[in-house]
Amino acid sequence: LPSLFPALDELIKMVPGIDEAIAFGLLVETIRSMNYNTIVFDTAPTGHTLRLLGFPNLFEKAIPKIEELNNRFGGMLGTLGSVSGMTQGSEPMNVTLGRMLKDLQETVKQVTDQFQDPTKTTFVCVCIPEFLSVYETERLVQELSSFKIDVNNIVINQVIDLSAGIPAEALFAARSKVQMKYLKQIDELYAEDFHVVKVPILPEEIRGKDMIMKYSKMIMGETQKSFGLS
């Protein structure tokens, strides 16, 4: 039996993201019974989302290997199931695994068809107007296109719109008030047990060696004058 465990471990490692795919498949089945015109998914951060969206291709490539392992260790799995009582009725464990694989294939196909049908699914990217967010959004758009998923909308949050008629000083004061509320919560939750570092928002992007050096000096409390701050 010990020789079986590496095989099962290999099976799990071969299909990363399988848990998310199964969960999404179950969610799709639940949604089909709901009477809504539109369903909105607030997805995980970019990396997790791409892992989920890339699962169908990964799973398709892993199927032959999974079937090979099931065939190779099928007899052992059947014996293990009989000895431990882990059977589905009178069905041997290896047969059950084979059937589950077929069911999962069908679920993955349904999810893929749902994703790639622009009349049923579209993806809305959300970002903020800063370097890293723009970079991640570009990566996301390219990956979505490679997965043949419709994407035509980008929402940009935290835009400073001077044409909106809100005085800059009033806007800054209002945002500062919002932040103070949560800074107080952070202090109450963590200040006693953690070293909390509060980094102020700066008028320039922190990019390049010179800016990083100035930034580090400010963080260390050596000077704020290098940013024109006092």
Descriptive notes:
The protein is mostly helical and 230 residues long. The protein contains nine helices and two strands; from the N terminus they run ααααααβαβαα. A two-stranded parallel sheet has the order 1-2. Helix 2 crosses helix 6 and helix 4 runs antiparallel to helix 6. InterPro entries: ArsA/GET3_ATPase-like, ATPase_ArsA/GET3, P-loop_NTPase. This is ArsA/GET3 Anion-transporting ATPase-like domain-containing protein. It comes from Rhodosorus marinus. One of its GO terms (molecular function) is ATP hydrolysis activity.
- How are helices and strands ordered from N to C? HHHHHHEHEHH
Question: Whole-number radius of gyration?
Answer: 26 Å
Overall 3D geometry?
elongated
Strand order of the largest sheet: 1-2
Helix content: 55-70%
Strand content: under 5%
Instruction: Name the average pLDDT.
Output: 78
Number of helices: 9
Briefly note the structural class of the backbone.
mainly alpha
Query: What are the segments in which pLDDT stays under 50 over at least 5 consecutive residues?
Result: 1-7, 83-88
How many distinct folded domains? 2
Q: Give the strand tally.
A: 2
Span of the ends, CA to CA? 70 Å
Biggest sheet architecture: 2 strands, parallel
Provide key terms for this protein.
230 residues, mainly alpha, 2 domains, two-stranded parallel ribbon, 9 helices, elongated
Summary, kept brief:
This protein has helices at residues 4-14, 18-32, 46-53, 55-72, 74-84, 93-116, 131-146, 168-190, 209-219; strands spanning 123-127, 151-156.
